Sequence to fold (543 residues):
Amino acid sequence: MIKFNFSKKTILVLLAGVLFLSFSFKSKFFEVAKQIEIYNTLFKELNMYYVNEINPAELTNKAIKNTLKDLDPYTKFYTEQGIEDARIRREGEYGGIGVSVYYSKLGIQINQVYKGYSADKAGLKVGDIIISVNGQSVKNMERDELSMYLKGTPNSIFSVELLRQGNTIQKEIIRDKIVVNPVPFYEMIDEETGYIVLTRFNKKASSEVKKAFQKLKKEGMKKLVFDLRANPGGSLFESIEISNFFLPKGKVIVSTKAKVKKWSNIYKTTNKPLDLEIPIVVLLNGRSASASEIVSGSLQDYDRAVIMGQRSFGKGLVQRYRELTYGTQLKVTISKYYTPSGRCIQELDYANRDKSGKVPKFSDKGINEFQTANGRTVYDGGGVLPDVVIKTSNKTESTKKLLSSRAIFNFSTNYYYQNPQIESEVDFEFKDSDFEKFTDYLESDTTFVTKPEMLFKEAYKTSVLKNISKEYKGIQEKLFQEKIKEISKNKDIIKRVLTEEILHRYYYQDGIYNHNIKNDLFIREAVNLLDNQDKYREILSKN
Fold:
């Protein structure tokens, strides 16, 4: 029997530690309870005595949003309707009409039509604005209200009134069961090179990637371009499954570190891989995030694929849904994740905002080196840095503003109605002369406003500047010419976005992919590298 001999001093220290932890826990619990009670009493007093009627749900939602706003943007509160929208993103199935939309004060504007579903069959077009559903106007409704109108039980029928190019049109639509395929396109680029696009990591991701891979193998695929550009991520477990397709059983794919011990885990591959030999190029860009970074990071750390493109987004945080009362939910960030080499690819340090609210980058403090299986040097500090970087022009602030506006969308809609036919999807080219037409169009566009233009407009409203009305148009024109000069520095980026937006109007999403496998710079560079196996192997060997 083992005997333990403790001194009185040791026992006192242990007791003091236990008492401190107990006090600390009780103190924290008391503080939480205290603040909740303060809010409850304030809410009751407002409800009873405030001179005007208040909306309890609206007030609570605002309070919750203010509570969460200083945390990371992935920690969110969901109402019952929000839960349904989140479930659709995870499951990839819902009852609807097969569109993606913008919400505005005018109503519901179609920004994408999925080929073969009920909206397409009913003749709805990108750019149409639904202004009423079953005779109920949807103008000036909140986003949560609008999102409910198009979804419903498959085979249910409803009518819509929509605006198209100034005309009002009536349509009757039957809802379908919509299945969101996370692999919307796969094809052979040439006799030996296959191409697979994965757009999201929903619950169908791994099964659809596997299906596409096996079909392409039967068609003679000996090399693979795996496109994760603009993939925002999704299921952690789907990312592990997909990594497992190309890595041996028993390999660590990702580890998580959490405040709650049971949520700190090491995740390994558990299945027999599909292929351990096929050369792979994974394409990334700045909108590839989360699960996309887990897959690309693990394949890079094991030297299993060449990562090509641009540094990924840098989301190294893991969320989990927690049930709340009355059918609501909280999606809360519970941990950070790390690639097999030990890298955390989280870029923004939300816990250390400065006094102005600006979020610093972890790389501001310096970056750290890590080693791949072959001894190559890789780095943390935000996102996955590709092995082969494809350079494009650096986006100006004006270009960023343009891309976040509706200007390109609106121009493309006008282009579609002014040009009943265009070249085939493979041969279509948005020429420099078309770019000039686009910049001319921006003179009448009201959605793309730069910061200098906005500040000048605000300043003009003041009485001090009212006296310069004669000069107003001249200054306005100079500001416009300056923003055209700034966006023209990114003509390569903007022409690509315009090309895809226009092609979708004529040839759906498939048309964009058919165009890209023949014309896209990233894909072309990936194929060139795969054709040069000496260079491919050299990249994956030790630096």
User: Anything to note?
Assistant: Residues 8-49 form the longest helix (42 residues). The domain at 93-179 is CATH 2.30.42.10 (Pdz3 Domain). Residues 407 and 447 are 6 Å apart (CA to CA).
